[in-house]
Design brief:
Distance between the termini: 60 Å
Number of domains: 1
CATH class: Alpha Beta
Number of helices: 6
CATH topology: Glutaredoxin
Strand content: 15-25%
CATH architecture: 3-Layer(aba) Sandwich
Helix content: 25-40%
């Protein structure tokens, strides 16, 4: 028969180990405030959020696209919102399913938080019609009020991806609309349309860091 003190002691040790594992799984932001980014090298600029420098930092420009419900989506849709942007297509057999799964993690994490939205741009708008996006949203469990899947003018989407979000990592390589846009990056945008972070949308650790950084960003406002 086991000694009762031994059993109690073992239970306490296992309990402590469990608590430590749960604590370690929760990411915290690497910094007290997030930097700003203004070009494709993603060199961080550490600025006071209320400074003139921050105010004139690169912003996501105006855009006009259509979501899975056939609703117009513009920069005004995200006014006073933090959002995460990515680029995908519904028939993608490669990286997109995993990116969508990780965006779903963000949807669940911020489901009750009206300050945070998600924005996925189709890079094959010629085939990703409104109805195709709607079917994809229904299949994946996407909540329309939280997560916008958008289609529209191909040139506008590609210009946004390469010149506004700097989502591709092929630095120094000139590309045109004819060159396919395919990237696993998630881009974090603040309430003033500034870029505040870029993350590997295929990596669970990176996505957890993104969650922590969103919470840090929320403290600014």
């Amino acid at each position: 028969m086991y000694n009762i003190k031994y059993i109690v002691g073992l239970s306490l040790i296992l309990s402590c180990l469990s608590c430590r594992d749960n604590s370690a799984s929760k990411k915290t932001s690497r910094v007290a405030a997030l930097p700003f980014y203004k070009e494709a090298t993603f060199t961080p600029h550490w600025l006071d959020v209320d400074s003139e420098e921050a105010d004139i930092m690169h912003r996501i420009p105006s855009f006009n696209l259509v979501n899975q419900l056939g609703q117009e989506v513009t920069e005004e849709t995200f006014k006073n919102k933090i959002y995460i942007a990515d680029f995908f297509f519904t028939t993608c057999p490669g990286i997109c399913p995993k990116m969508t799964a990780n965006m779903m993690v963000l949807q669940e994490e911020f489901l009750e938080d009206d300050d945070v939205l998600l924005l996925s741009h189709s890079v094959t708008p010629e085939t990703d019609s409104v109805s195709a996006l709607k079917r994809y949203a229904e299949t994946k469990g996407i909540i329309n009020s939280k997560w916008h899947l958008v289609t529209g003018d191909r040139k506008q989407i590609y210009d946004l991806g390469r010149q506004a979000y700097f989502a591709e990592e092929d630095l120094g390589i000139d590309k045109t609309e004819a060159d396919f846009l395919h990237t696993e990056n998630f881009v974090l945008i603040d309430k003033n349309r500034h870029i505040r972070g870029i993350y590997n949308g295929l990596n669970k650790t990176s996505v957890q860091q993104l969650i922590a950084d969103i919470k840090t960003l929320q403290k600014e406002n």
